[in-house]
Amino acid sequence: AFTTIFDIVKLEPFYKEAIEQCRSYNARLCAERSVRLPFLDSQTGVAQNNCYIWMERHHRSPGVSAGQMYTYPARCWRKKRRLHNATDPRLVVSIKACDKSVMF
């Protein structure tokens, strides 16, 4: 069936309500998961940490393109800085003097 602009205007409040319900569900889900973090995944052996990829409602802006309800600000992914191997005290190999009385 051909959709008119009037049909879209009538459906927009329902769509916005569905988006809000989805956001609310995702927020509850993230809150429940963050309580259980960090944990070691038994299947993969990888430590799972909290991620910060979810946007809050106050980040939401009106859409800028046709058919776009909302836009969110771009947030670049940044890798955590790691210490250089030579300066990381956990990775420095300590050389101890060998006791000559012990023979192998």
TrEMBL record:
* KW Repeat (keyword) present: yes
A GO molecular-function annotation: zinc ion binding
Q: Where is the DPF1-3 N-terminal domain?
A: 12-82
Q: Which InterPro entries match?
A: DPF1-3_N
Q: Where in the cell is it found?
A: Nucleus
- One Gene Ontology term from the biological process aspect of the record: nervous system development
GO CC entries: nBAF complex
Pfam families assigned? DPF1-3_N
UniProtKB keywords: Metal-binding, Nucleus, Repeat, Transcription, Transcription regulation, Zinc, Zinc-finger
Q: What is this protein called?
A: Double PHD fingers 2
The gene for this chain is DPF2
